[in-house]
């Protein structure tokens, strides 16, 4: 799916695992994705989480559905990650229904430091 969506492909997100139970996406944090202080920008973290959860939602689409879209998303920023850090987003389902799925995405550094947590609702299309 990542090749079908231009924005995450442009950012360089790399899908490491994708199934109905878990999605893992990685990227090395580039300086242009950071704030003035050289740490991950909140908008970048939200884009990474949204993409990761959407991949999960695609994995659980019911028969006959063609796509999914984010209808709600909430992100808590927990810690800072410096430019050059390997970022790992891991999405797991909270709910899988006929019309929606809800995903929690944790973004951590490769050292295991928690950076953000996002909960999003994806609608079946």
From TrEMBL:
GO CC annotation, single: cytosol
Annotated ranges, domain Thioesterase: 37-114
Superkingdom of origin organism: Bacteria
Keyword tRNA-binding assigned: no
Keywords: Hydrolase
Keyword Hydrolase in annotation: yes
A Pfam short name: 4HBT
MF-aspect GO terms: 1,4-dihydroxy-2-naphthoyl-CoA thioesterase activity
InterPro entries per the UniProt record, alphabetical: HotDog_dom_sf, PAAI_dom, Thioestr_dom
Protein name: PaaI family thioesterase
